[in-house]
Structures are given as C-alpha cells and as structure tokens.
Design a protein that fits this description.
It is built from 3 helices and 12 strands, in the order H-E-E-E-E-E-E-E-H-E-E-E-E-E-H. The chain is an alpha+beta fold. The chain has a single domain, classed as tt1808, chain A.
C-alpha cells in the first residue's frame, strides 16, 4: 500500500487546485481534476497525476472511469518517495502522448519546474521559486503566484 501524501503535499495541492479552479470556472475554460483519477493512454499506460486540466473543447476525453487521452496540463507534486516515477516515467509518458504543459512541483524546495511540449519533445521553460509569479502557457491570462502555492 502506498502511504498517503504528506500534509505539506496536500496543502500545496489544495492551494494549486483552488487557484486554478477559481480561474477556470469563472472563465468557463474547461475542467480540472485531482488525484485520484486515472489518465488512460493505453491498456498498460495508466497514471494518476496530482492535478490535470482539460480545455473546454477537449472535454470529450473525460469519461465516467477517468480521462482517456492526454490532458492539456498535468501537475505532479514531487516527494522523495515519488520523484523517480514523477520525473522520469510519468514525464516520458506525458511527453510521448502529447501533454502540452507539465509542472513538477517540489514542496520542500518551494520550486516549480515547467516543461512545454515543442515538436513532440519537452523543453524546460524554467525553474521558478516561491517569490515568482508564473504565467500558465495552456491557460491564457492565468498567472500563478507561487507565494500563494507554498504558503
């Protein structure tokens, strides 16, 4: 059995969910979902990201039993127990199946690494710290103040 996420992990996840959902809902842009939810890429490629965003025009990939296809944006909150899976295995899957934006959030280091899909490969957009405000590439006009995320 996998242990439950730490309280720090849960706080960061909740803060991100609130910021993103408030903006997405008020602008009718799509849906966000959070763990546990299956993202199914194929019969053997099923993952449960911490947070996903699916744009309004792509909501057909959302079914009763999960998300069948690539979300537009995936956020993984990285802990020492999940870092190898989140950083390598899941990142490779997200890249291969076309997730446009991938965030790796490190609660203990209070930083976020952002990768954007360009030409079928992830390019590191940058590493952002607690004092930064971060513009979301897949959601126009959504800026995430990382101070709010890590508080």
């Amino acid at each position: 059995m996998v242990p439950a996420p730490s309280t720090r992990h849960q706080n960061v996840s909740r803060n991100l969910e609130f910021i993103i959902w408030s903006f997405v809902k008020s602008h009718n842009l799509g849906m966000i979902y959070y763990a546990p939810i299956d993202v199914v890429f194929g019969s053997t490629d099923v993952v449960q990201p911490d947070i996903v965003f699916i744009a309004k025009n792509r909501l057909a990939i959302v079914k009763e039993k999960g998300i069948f296809g690539a979300p537009d944006w995936v956020i993984e909150i990285v802990s020492s127990s999940t870092s190898k899976i989140d950083i390598k295995l899941k990142k490779d899957l997200y890249e291969r199946f076309g997730v446009r934006e991938y965030w790796m959030v490190y609660p203990e280091d209070e930083k976020v690494e952002v990768c954007l899909l360009e030409g079928g490969n992830y390019k590191l957009r940058g590493v952002f710290l607690k004092q930064d405000a971060l513009q979301v590439s897949t959601i126009e006009r959504l800026e995430v103040n990382l101070e709010e995320v890590f508080s």
